[in-house]
Amino acid sequence: MTPVTAFKGKSVAVFGLGGSGFVTAQALVAGGARVNVWDDNEHAREKARAAGLRIENLAAADWSVFEALILSPGVPLTHPAPHWTVIKAKEAGIEVIGDIELFCRERRKIAPGAPFVAITGTNGKSTTTALVAHLFSSFGFSVEIGGNIGTPILALAPPDKSRVHVIECSSYQIDLAPSLDPSVGILLNVTPDHLDRHGTMENYAAIKARLVAGADHAVIGVDDEFTRAIAARLREAGREITLVSAAGQKFDEGIIYEGGRLFRREGGRSDLIADLAGVASLRGAHNGQNAAVAIAALGALGRDHARVAAGLASFPGLAHRLEEVGRLGKVLFVNDSKATNADAAEKALLSFDEIFWILGGRAKQGGIEPLRPLFGRIVKAYLIGEASEAFAQTISGAFPVEFCETLENAVPKAAEDARASALESPVVLLSPACASFDQFPDFEKRGDRFRALAKALMDKP
């Protein structure tokens, strides 16, 4: 744990006692703060009480005694409307911040300049976070990995110049971290998502931009208009920046992915860094971009191309993101449950041909219409969840569809059709292009269920 001493001897309010909120309250107590916690969920309050935390109904509290409100990232800060705790905090004239901000303050206090790599983007940030951590580990560094990828940042060991913190940051977390200042800030991409929480694309992009704007060194993928604009502004301001592209963007200095290989552009020439051919965990151009930004995050270490190539080749990949579950004869099962929007699903569809596609759930804005150019890769679709009817209308005869309602129905049907086909390399792909919340609490549980169903078929005699 990282004890937070910034509020030692002061009173703070903590709202939201999920994974990160619970740990945040404990870290503040460990740092000497007087902490009052609340959550609308009674079970969460009971857990906090059992851990010795002070429970106080913040709706009836005297907010004049608090120095700050520490808010869970899942609680609305601005849109669709500020949460009632945010309104009370503003009325009391106190700041509203989150756990990433607390870490940043503690880092500046106890270990200024300690290695801290922060990663954001609409898609790809979890894979990139895992890959950056893996590469630093392959160079012999002690690495702490967490944030939005799973382990709360304050549950990690404290910042220290001898260890590298590699942290995935969601837009919600960045919005609660006004002084976010990583040594390396990575911005992968900005495409429509979470507009219910940020209002407009411009506001969403501006929040993402804060992560690289505060970094000592910015690494930016420039394959969409928003990130190109952000990079241009930072360059005009004279900031240290590395550009990355996997879509043919032209620049003199940076790292590009082209034809399955990674190149460093420097002084008008291109030097080969690594070939990703045969690295199943880094299949596709989107993973080429992830690898490129990970190399840039290494700084001078990234110039040891032989060691970088070995690190990339040994990367095991990330669960639920193009995860190869196994084979049933010629049929490959791929778990891409983390593809909760069309942009993420696009990366999976671009990675395979001969696809038996399982999709559906709770649809995001725009549905699957953006995926129409890739419909030629689909042999058949198996629709599950709330979005089934709407997705069937979008597909509208482009390829056969079957309404399956659940994964329990979809997986065996897709496997049977794939095995019976005359295709050489059929893929049963779960890439839902939807949130999971109509049938599962999160994409992990959805992916776990797909994996279990696929393995049950593979284990049949």
TrEMBL record:
Chief location category? cytoplasm
Q: Which SUPFAM superfamilies match?
A: MurCD N-terminal domain, MurD-like peptide ligases, catalytic domain, MurD-like peptide ligases, peptide-binding domain
Q: Per UniProt, what is the name of the gene that codes for the protein in this document? A: murD
Identify its protein family: Belongs to the MurCDEF family.
Q: Give the organism, scientific name.
A: Methylocella tundrae
Task: Spell out the molecular function terms from Gene Ontology.
Answer: ATP binding; UDP-N-acetylmuramoylalanine-D-glutamate ligase activity
- Name of the protein in its database record: UDP-N-acetylmuramoylalanine--D-glutamate ligase
* Pathway(s) this gene product operates in, as recorded in its UniProt entry: Cell wall biogenesis; peptidoglycan biosynthesis
Query: Is NADP a UniProt keyword of this protein?
Result: no
What are its GO cellular component terms? cytoplasm
Give a short account of what the protein does. Cell wall formation. Catalyzes the addition of glutamate to the nucleotide precursor UDP-N-acetylmuramoyl-L-alanine (UMA).
